[in-house]
Design brief:
This protein is of the alpha/beta class. Helices cover about 35% and strands about 20% of the residues. The strands form two sheets. Strands 3-4-2-1-5-6-7-8 form an eight-stranded mixed β-sheet, with helices on both faces. It has a seven-stranded mixed β-sheet with strand order 11-10-9-12-13-15-14, sandwiched between helices. Helix 1 links the parallel strand 1 and strand 2. Helix 1 packs across helix 13 and helix 2 runs parallel beside helix 3.
């Protein structure tokens, strides 16, 4: 079986969906009966084969004038299935990504699309182009139909749909007591609690709320993410971090290697992910923190309160006081080992995709 992934982003490009694609591709490629290829952006680097995956970084800009490059890879590599990931940062605003399902179908290929997010009203043309052809749809969000705007639910008519959960893109790390002590001292400085945010620094991530949730008297904030030098939101984060109340109590690391992020999560007293659109099991950042045993505070539109099994507190969106209370109540608690959480989730995810592919080819 030959499966060609198409994704605008792929490591080393920084993108959550790119990391997801990489982890899924590696898990599937572990099966010698499955051959995996990845068609992606030229900025990934030269063509190479890694972890049993053939990578085709050939698209400079995802515009229509590069459609022939897509056709050439599909024709020459001859996949049985083309599996397209939406959205990715690498696609940009080009029209080509919307036409990938149609191009693949016209070339006689079976098509799978994974939709990681919903659609806005301005996306109606894009959604129409993605949904006019017979295709299988994979969702990483549970109850995706309810999440999709009612005006767009026609896009699911006649489609085979599968919910396949997401997993952590951060590895699980095992540290000795002395290693944990060394890492914690490196970040903690003169404060008592280590409070961590990691990921992209966007307004909908709610990073600015950290300075209201955390306590400047006791907490050291670590932001493991890239903050640009321009943009109103970047400037706001830098302004808050340099305010008199937080001087020498905020560390902005930039993006860290996955192993370093895992080590940071393994010693954090709390990981705060105060998403303004609500979080859930589709967020790889939540999975990564839970996998490394951290206590997590996040927000949700459907869940509330403390989930002891996962060591996660779900607060209402923008409810500063609720998140403050959760921090003071549960900070420092580490999750106990649980076979449901600590098993190889990517192996399970790959199995479900393999079953879907086999069904389509049967």
């Amino acid at each position: 079986m030959k499966v060609l992934f198409i994704t605008g982003s792929y490591p080393p490009i920084k993108c959550g969906v790119g990391d997801y694609s990489n982890n899924l591709a590696k898990a599937l490629a572990a099966d010698p009966k499955i051959h995996i290829g990845v068609l992606t952006s030229a900025s990934v680097g030269e063509m190479h084969k890694l972890d049993g995956i053939e990578v085709f970084p050939v698209i400079t800009r995802w515009s229509l004038n590069e459609a022939l490059k897509v056709i050439e890879v599909i024709r020459n590599w001859a996949p049985d299935i083309v599996h397209i990931q939406y959205p990715t940062q690498g696609y940009g605003n080009g029209l080509l990504p919307c036409l990938l399902p149609l191009i693949s179908i016209l070339m006689g290929k079976k098509v799978v699309q994974t939709w990681h997010e919903g659609f806005n009203r301005r996306d109606v043309v894009e959604l129409f182009l993605k949904s006019i052809i017979p295709t299988s749809l994979v969702f990483v969000r549970p109850r995706y139909k309810e999440y999709l705007h009612p005006l767009f639910r026609w896009a699911l008519w006649g489609k085979k749909t599968d919910f396949i959960p997401n997993a952590s893109s951060i590895p699980r790390v095992e540290l000795s007591a002395s290693e944990k002590n060394t890492i914690k001292k490196q970040y903690l400085k003169n404060q008592k609690r280590l409070v961590v945010f990691f990921g992209f620094i966007y307004p909908h991530k709610g990073v600015d709320l950290l300075f209201e949730i955390a306590d400047s008297i006791s907490d050291q904030i670590v932001i493991a993410g890239e903050i640009g030098d321009s943009g109103d939101y970047s400037q706001e984060i830098r302004r808050q971090a340099s305010a008199e109340l937080w001087i020498d109590k905020v560390t902005i690391t930039g993006f860290l290697p996955a192993a370093d992020v895992a080590a940071l999560l393994a010693v954090a007293d709390a990981v705060i992910l105060p998403f303004r659109i609500g979080g859930g099991e589709w967020n790889t950042s939540i999975h990564g923190a839970v996998l490394n045993g951290a206590f997590v505070i996040t927000t949700s539109l459907t869940q509330s309160g403390y989930d002891e099994k996962h060591n996660v507190y779900y607060a209402k969106v923008d409810d500063i006081q609720e998140m403050r209370t959760a921090l003071s109540t549960y900070a420092g608690i580490r999750r106990e080992y649980n076979t449901d959480i600590d098993r190889d989730e990517w192996c399970q995810i790959a199995d479900k995709h393999r079953s879907l592919y086999e069904f389509m080819l049967s």
